[in-house]
Design a protein that fits this description.
The chain has 179 residues and is mostly helical. The protein is 64% helix and 3% strand.
Length: 179
Amino acid sequence: FIQTNENSKVILQISQMSEDQINSYDGERKTYAILTQALTNDILHQFGGATTAFDLWNQMAIRTEGNPRSKLARMELLRKEFEALVHIVGESLNDLLVSFYHLQTELTANGFNCGHRDYIERFADALHEYWNQYLELLRVTGNLDESTFSEFVDNLKNKIMDDTRKATRTPTTQNPSLF
């Protein structure tokens, strides 16, 4: 264990450590072991200069997050992807939702946060033209302005269930004499 004073480092034997220092040393060793065991040797060799768990963690964070310029480029790319999101022919609502949620998670993780309103508008614009009439109805009634993104998605899913239920009804002839 290395104890640092103002300008010097002193190596302590375990017998010379206080209870808190022993716990700190033990926690550091366990954390370093967990991190190094989680990485394959090919990846671990890239971080050879890391002697503590903190150093290893910081080097991995820098490697995955990149420098400020690459962060900005990634953010711009995500923003463009958000603005260009469109429905792909043959894609179901659930497929589009999975893509959108993934993009939303990436945007949030990179510091780009939109409100429910922006998410709703962007997703509504990405939907297939099949949804245009229903979206207009939601706008006119005010349901689009007052709902959260989750409520908006629930409305879309309910519409699909209603359409499916109506489509599976079997037509039966009615006997007017019964009335």
